[in-house]
Design a protein that fits this description.
Distance between the termini: 34 Å
Low-confidence stretches: none
Number of helices: 7
Helix content: 25-40%
C-alpha cells in the first residue's frame, strides 16, 4: 500500500525520517532516483540516514514502478520519495496505486520562482504537476504533517 509519494530534492533527511515516516506509519522507503540507484557511493550515503526498523530501497524509476506494481508488496506500507516533478509524473503514470503527491521541497535553481517557503518551480514543473492532476491524483504542498496543505491551484497562481 502506498502511504505517500513525496517530491523532495533532498531525498532522505531528518524531516522525512523523523516526521513523515512516523506520520504515515511506513515500514518501507523507496528512494526513486536513477542517479542514486546507479551510483553505489550515493546509495551508501542515503543508507546512512535510514532509520532502524524501516526497509529502504534505492531504485531507478523503472524499478520503482515494477516494485510498486508487484502485488507481493501490497502488505508493505510504502513511502516513496523522488527528487522532482518530472520523476513524480513518471511514477504516477506507471503506478495506479499512487493517489496523492506531496510536494515537500524543490530548491531554487536558475529560472525557478519561489511559490512557497521550500518550493521553487518553473513552467515545466507546473505542467508536469498539472499532468499528474489530469490523471485524477491529488497534489498538494505540505512541508510537515502538522502544516496546512497548499493546493496546486494556489501554487500555479503564484507564477
Amino acid at each position: 500500500m502506498i502511504k505517500q509519494l513525496r517530491i523532495d530534492d533532498r531525498l532522505i533527511h531528518g524531516e522525512v525520517v523523523v516526521l513523515w515516516l512516523s506520520h504515515t506509519s511506513a515500514d518501507t522507503v523507496i528512494v526513486a532516483d536513477d542517479q542514486h540507484a546507479t551510483n553505489p557511493m550515493l546509495t551508501m550515503t542515503l543508507n546512512l540516514a535510514k532509520p532502524k526498523g524501516v526497509t529502504m530501497h534505492v531504485l531507478t524509476l523503472e524499478d520503482t514502478v515494477k516494485y510498486v506494481n508487484d502485488t507481493t508488496h501490497d502488505v508493505e506500507k510504502i513511502f516513496i520519495v523522488c527528487a522532482n516533478a518530472q520523476n513524480a509524473l513518471k511514477l504516477v503514470q506507471g503506478c495506479e496505486s499512487i493517489q496523492e503527491v506531496n510536494i515537500g521541497a524543490m530548491r531554487s535553481s536558475n529560472g525557478k520562482k519561489q511559490v512557497t517557503l521550500k518550493v521553487y518551480v518553473d513552467q515545466k514543473d507546473v505542467e508536469d504537476l498539472q499532468e499528474i492532476e489530469k490523471l485524477n491524483r491529488t497534489i498538494y504542498q505540505q512541508t510537515k504533517p502538522d502544516q496546512k496543505r497548499v493546493s496546486l491551484k494556489e501554487i500555479a497562481a503564484k507564477l
